[in-house]
């Protein structure tokens, strides 16, 4: 599948502000390739591309004072992947790649240490592997109400487990927390999604199953037709589309994802 | 049924300390009558009995510095009550006695305002009245692990909803919170219980159903043979067996409840 | 001083909803007398006035489905009170009226049990009595940023102590919590205030000092010229201007407090 | 300075348990060199040494069921370091090494996002650089009570900011959080400390100042004579001395740090 992504963000900055942007789709060999990526900042400001701790594409820039527009355009090709079927095996901390162990630990928004009993109560009896994580995603889909404006940047999986309401970010945090509570490595993915209504940045999660990272999106019962990875991390703290070292306000945000040749 | 209650508490106080004791069983016409109640404080200290906000029997005393022993003995008669069967009707805020409305509001350990979605998700479809509250108590019994030493005096229903572990106090707080989230008045009861193992103070909750307060104990699937009411309140904050205005340490605690004539 | 209070609230109710209103100023002998109070509900609905647990004037009503307007008008006379000066004495749990003891305990939004060390660290050395509570109010005024839209109905004093931002309700909760942590009885007051900008419902707190309840408003360094008491309680949970047993949305709210004869 | 470190941990495991150990001192060129390190596991179990995400020395092992003893011995040489004096300059997100940016973000136990107002209120006026972080450490030392048994594995900086009590781990978390709230990169260090009473594992924090990581230990007003680094991370979640993928109980723990040639 081939997708066009177009993002426009109008910001207001009371002072020149060092800023990290994480809006660019990742180049992933065999899974996600980019054509004609463009990042525009206006008024013009020189930005420094770099890879963060997780290898995510980031951009550091001193945004000038006043009204600033960030624009990002790219065409993304995602080949139809053919994976061998996942075997129903337990994540085994003894044989996991050591790089996956980090994703078994609790993090800012995923207090898996506090949700162990709940995770075992709900999912302890489910067959291991893909089935168990899909059951987690389905449970979240069924029991958490999707609603804007109730949760905020301080809301964590611990809150969502009790309050049962939130947005894609909260759904992902809860899924990650249940996985980690069951010793399954799980990580957060920020990105883009075809067909999201209303259009917005998106978030989902990945679990490490039978030797590879598998995506789950608890906001939908049907697999999403196209998920585009921007950044991976332990949770949303690592994957913010903008981190201001100072203060910045978003006045307007456009996120457009379209299928190339879909005749829209 | 006739019960003997015997409590001994050895305290250590670094300074003379004003203290409120709530250890004396309530006298409740037709339901709980007391014989030969004795409160002993050693070294002797004069105590002032009074009724708190909720009408609970309390005792205010200036405990002296050093080692202090509190002892309470009483025989309690609880006639076999014959109540008309409860009708399966909704709690209706419009016709509740206004004195019951307080018990629909959130309190220190019962953040019912944050558990509304969870309560409706779990219990919204259950028939109203006794069945619904019994379902709540059963759910808690089944899904919360009873374990000493994990929760503490700061633990609230919001924590227990996520962490799924606690003691009688936590079980009661969660039951109360679910009821209030569903607009059913519910209150906390501290007291004594026959057959508790290990023996200790006990806590359970009451819901206001079809015109009267009905007791539920989520720590047991079978109704408790004998629950003795000491204090009622919005939650444990109102019913502490001892409140020190200063600092006091409990070195030893004995709580003994026996059935009179049970030939033990 | 003589004040006119005028409140208009436009509500939207998706279904007929039992509702408790706490918008009427309290009649307090010698301190606050009412002239020509009027409560109007449109479309007309019969309401039942009652006193709650704390003696506050309340009104219970089944609001009809759809758009509903609540209007309240009253003229309030507050004589210039002449109180003997407060002596700098400690609150003494041993001699407090037993009715004040309730206000030494933690509550939903005032987790004084968790703020004991902070309270002693900040205020433990201040002279007892009025000076200490005024120091608490001043500290809050200086260190908490007054800002709408950051805290919400779930925010408690524990949050405000760390996050340092909030509105009058949060300021009151923190003041109450510090007082209780120091064993000073303190309670929440909802009401009206002359000169508030923007006009709104208001909240402040009272501490029990030298035999009477004394008002403190941490949102201002200068004593407020006129505070009108509607309801007292342990915290905001007891004093909501509207409690819907169901769901209600406030579309518009006008709160007008003017001085009679002030020639405005 | 030359130190001997000796650790003995007796564990009880109800089942064979995959376990990660982080008890071995790090080899740090020019700052910390190791002689004769020995890790013994009994009954014998083969362990796999590896470096985690942060480059910390870790060891993965399948611990057998039953009683298990872990022993670690090493001699550590820490040359007297001569660093150029730190210039009083602000951490500047624009020119930080990108590897340091991770340590400006909130984490499991360091909710710096919620403590921004408190950090600016307390430390916003202090001169930047070393002085500011030392002021943070001193403030924590003065205002947080060091006490075992009150905080636990679930306690975070948000709690410590309000509750004002804790152990070395909590002190470090709060210091880190204040730094990050002020945009200063800060990280957690687990390790060993000479002269600790009672002896135990230790934790402190490092801030990135003028181009290097500088250690601060808020548990002491005087710089510690010798701090030994085991692991660095975002907070304690990344640096646990043992992580059981299952369940393990510590029956006995000995941590001995002595100065070589100190004639003890």
Characterize this entry briefly:
The first copy, chain A, has helices at 116-123, 130-143, 157-163, 168-181; strands at residues 2-13, 17-21, 33-42, 47-51, 57-63, 66-77, 145-146, 165-166, 186-193, 202-209, 212-216, 227-233, 242-244, 249-259. Chain A has 264 residues and is α+β, with helices and mostly antiparallel strands. Chain A is globular, with a radius of gyration of 19 Å.
List keywords for this structure.
homotetramer; 264 residues; alpha+beta; Immunoglobulin-like; C8orf32 fold; 2 domains; four-stranded antiparallel β-sheet; 16% helix; globular
C-alpha end-to-end distance of chain A: 15 Å
Instruction: Point out poorly predicted stretches of chain A.
Output: none
Q: Sketch the major β-sheet of chain A.
A: 4 strands, antiparallel
Q: What is the CATH top level name of the largest domain in chain A?
A: Alpha Beta
Oligomer: homotetramer
The average pLDDT score of chain A comes to 95
Tell me the greatest interface: A-D, 32 and 32 residues
Domain count of chain A: 2
Helix residue percentage of chain A: 10-25%
Q: Would you tell me which CATH topology of the largest domain in chain A applies?
A: C8orf32 fold
Spell out the helices and strands of chain A N to C. Answer: EEEEEEHHEHEHEEEEEE
Shape of chain A: globular
Radius of gyration of chain A, taken over Cα atoms and rounded to an integer in Å: 19 Å
Number of strands of chain A: 14
Describe the protein:
The structure is a homotetramer of 264-residue chains. With 264 residues, the first copy, chain A, is of the alpha+beta class. The first copy, chain A, has two domains: 2-80 and 241-259, Immunoglobulin-like (Sandwich), CATH 2.60.40; 98-238, C8orf32 fold (Roll), CATH 3.10.620. Helix content of chain A is 16%, strand content 37%. Chain A is built from four helices and 14 strands. The first copy, chain A, has helices at residues 116-123, 130-143, 157-163, 168-181; strands at residues 2-13, 17-21, 33-42, 47-51, 57-63, 66-77, 145-146, 165-166, 186-193, 202-209, 212-216, 227-233, 242-244, 249-259. In chain A, strands 3-6-1-14 form a four-stranded antiparallel β-sheet, with no helix packed on it. A four-stranded antiparallel β-sheet of chain A has the order 4-5-2-13, with no helix packed on it. In chain A, helix 2 (130-143) packs across helix 4 (168-181). Chain A is globular and about 55 Å long. The model of chain A has no long low-confidence stretch (mean pLDDT 95). Chains in contact: A-B, A-D, B-C, C-D.
